[in-house]
Amino acid sequence: MKALGIGLIGTGYMGKCHALAWNAVKTVFGDVERPKLVHLAEANAELAQSRASEFGFEKATSDWRQLIADPDVDVVSVTTPNQFHAEMAITALEAGKHVWCEKPMAPAYAEAERMLIAAKTSGKVAILGYNYIQNPVMRHIKTLIGEGAIGAVNHVRVEMDEDFMADAEALFYWKSESASGYGALDDFAVHPLSMIWFLFGHVEAVITDMVKPYADRPLKDGGRRAVENHDAANVLMRLGGGISAVLMANRAAWGRKGRIALQIFGSKGSISYDQERMNEFELYRAEGRGSEQGYAKILAAPAHHPYDRFIPAPGHGLGFNDLKIIECRELIRAISGEPSSTVAFSDGLRIEKSVHAMAQSFHERRWIEIAD
User: Fold this and answer.
1) With 80 as the cut, is the pLDDT of residue 1 above it?
2) CA 61: distance to chain centroid?
3) How many CB atoms lie within 10 A of CB 226?
4) pLDDT one-digit tens code per residue, 84-143
């Protein structure tokens, strides 16, 4: 397979993360051609030039459409705010480019549907940036569940908490606008939903409550603006196979930095995992004498592929950006026609559908069944 030409739209936190992945995927995995970093787009022309130099891209532009039109670009990374995802991804797919778009797909479900239609029509690979499922630890948890290590799973609890919006006097910015989505659910809780999908399949029914910890926030130039979406949500869920589940999400949770606390309970044991300690998990097996039963802490190690492609020794730990490199390798697999572990637009739309059902449940105060 020839080297892929890469275009990157957006150079903030996730844009830099994508750039690091494209730069490192050959070094880490060795079995792919080194991607060619062709074109970078940023709203400000001067910033675009600066970022292109920093990230290693050949060309820079303040017009993302110019990047998509570049014949040397094969894959477009879309890392802009949520409300721009649909137009950029659809335009790229219609131009015959593969797409790696950050989550969520789009604030409006109709736009997400259009993204999937564009992907199917183009025949190109289109995936979403759900890199937490690429964690070698998460992959091993899936293997253990499949092997029946904790018996038949009957209940799952997942909490996602961060405190980047915990300060009541932090300035209003786009994540509090209704244009960006529902708030904690689609900006945020889609990550644990991707884990639920990865481990157990899609959510089948939900009932939801959402809250606004703060009614308004200060503006930079004075005054205050009403918060337009919800920073915390609680959801009861039903999964396939009779599994009950609970999702709690709060992006105004003081003290929590990157927490996705996942507990999986089965008929013969349980598994506990926390994203803030992403290189370990705990396994409880209900076997042997009760006097010696207890959780065993298991550290990430070369036995948990592809940890071994990064570090030859156990217990040293991978990071967030390393998971993005793994996701990048999986995208290249998909483009080359190999089986891959990615969230394609089709599964991403089903996650979006779950989120919209949760919001509908909140407004209608009832259980919502989610049809395929």
Assistant:
1) no
2) 27
3) 12
4) 999 999 999 999 999 999 998 998 999 999 999 999 999 999 999 999 999 999 999 999
8 Å CB contact between 68 and 80: no
Q: Please give the average per-residue pLDDT across 302-313, as a whole number.
A: 97
Is the pTM higher than 0.70? yes
Token readout for 34 is 């080194």
Report which of 333, 337, 84, 21 is spatially closest to residue 37, judged by C-alpha positions: 21
Distances (CA, A) of 56 to 2, 8, 35, 53: 19, 11, 11, 5
| Among the listed residues 114, 146, 107, 110, the one whose alpha carbon sits nearest the alpha carbon of residue 241 | 146
Q: Which of 309, 302, 319, 307 is nearest to 32 (CA)?
A: 309
CB 262 within 8 A of CB 274: yes
| DSSP secondary structure, 72-139, as one string | T--EEEE-S-GGGHHHHHHHHHHTT-EEEEESSS-SSHHHHHHHHHHHHHHT--EEEE-GGGG-HHHH
**Would you say 22 and 98 are in contact if contact means Cβ atoms under 8 Å apart?**
no
Average pLDDT, the chain: 96
Q: Which of 75, 195, 81 is nearest to 137 (CA)?
A: 195
